[in-house]
Write a structure and sequence with these properties.
mainly beta; Immunoglobulin-like; 2 domains; seven-stranded antiparallel β-sheet; four-stranded antiparallel β-sheet; 14 strands
C-alpha cells in the first residue's frame, strides 16, 4: 500500500493524510456465509521525540458500491509482521452484488512512521450456481472443516426439506471426480458427511452438493501433506 523502499527510513510511509486501497466490485450475493480473508502488515512507529502515536489502520466494507462504508476493524498493533485477518461479511452487513472492501493507512495529527501492506486477498465461502431444475433455497448451510485438511474433513450441511438423490462429490483441478462422499436421498435437517483425504495428493479440490431438484452448491478444499 505504501511502498517498499528500504534505503531511507520514512521514504515510503504515509505522511499528513491517508492512503487507501479498495477492491474492485464483488458480487457476494450468491455466496453462503462469505468470509473475506487477507494478510495485512501494519507499522506505526513514533518519532524518537514523541511519547506516543494514535494512528490506526481501518478496515472497511460497503454493500452499496461505496455510497456508505462501515469500519469493521481498527488495527492498532505494530508487529512489523504479516498477520492473517478474516471477516465474516454477514456479521457486519447483508452480502450484495455491490460489495467493496477497503483498507486505510493514515498518519494524522502528530506525525509518525506509518507503513502498511496487503497480500493474498480472497473470498472464502460456497457459491450457489444455477443448474437445470427447480430454483430454491434447499441448502441453507454448508461448511467443510478443517480446511486445509490433511487426513479427514467433515461436510456440515443443512437442508430445508427432504432431497432425493443428493450427491456430494469431490473434483480435482481437471474436473474429474476423485471421490463420491454421498449419493442417496436425505431428510430435512442437519447432516454430517466425512471426506477421506488421506489418499488424495496435495492440492486444491472442488466439492459439490447437487441433486436434480436443487441448485448446485460448490466450494474449495485444500489438501496438504
Amino acid at each position: 500500500i505504501t511502498g517498499t523502499n528500504r534505503n531511507i527510513v520514512g521514504s515510503s510511509d504515509v505522511d499528513s493524510g491517508r492512503t487507501s486501497l479498495t477492491t474492485p466490485l464483488m458480487d457476494l450475493s450468491k455466496h453462503i456465509t462469505p468470509t473475506v480473508a487477507t494478510w495485512l502488515w501494519y507499522s506505526r512507529d513514533r518519532f524518537p521525540s514523541q511519547a506516543s502515536t494514535n494512528d490506526t489502520m481501518n478496515v472497511s466494507m460497503s454493500n452499496d458500491n461505496g455510497r456508505t462504508w462501515q469500519i469493521i476493524d481498527q488495527i492498532l498493533s505494530t508487529e512489523n509482521a504479516w498477520k492473517e485477518y478474516r471477516y465474516q461479511v454477514e456479521q457486519y452487513m447483508t452480502p450484495t452484488a455491490q460489495m467493496l472492501f477497503r483498507v486505510d493507512a493514515s498518519d494524522l495529527n502528530t506525525q509518525s512512521w506509518v507503513e502498511a501492506g496487503l497480500d493474498d486477498f480472497r473470498v472464502i465461502g460456497t457459491i450457489v450456481t444455477g443448474v437445470e431444475g427447480e430454483t430454491n433455497a434447499a441448502v441453507t448451510r454448508v461448511n467443510v472443516v478443517p480446511n486445509p485438511v490433511r487426513d479427514r474433513a467433515v461436510v456440515d450441511v443443512t437442508f430445508a426439506r427432504a432431497i432425493a438423490d443428493m450427491r456430494i462429490e469431490l473434483y480435482d483441478v481437471l474436473g474429474r471426480i476423485v471421490a463420491t462422499v454421498h449419493a442417496a436421498d436425505v431428510a430435512a435437517g442437519a447432516h454430517r458427511f466425512d471426506i477421506d483425504a488421506a489418499l488424495l495428493s496435495a492440492g486444491r479440490y472442488t466439492w459439490r452438493v447437487s441433486a436434480p431438484s436443487i441448485e448446485t452448491v460448490s466450494g474449495a478444499v485444500n489438501v496438504v501433506r
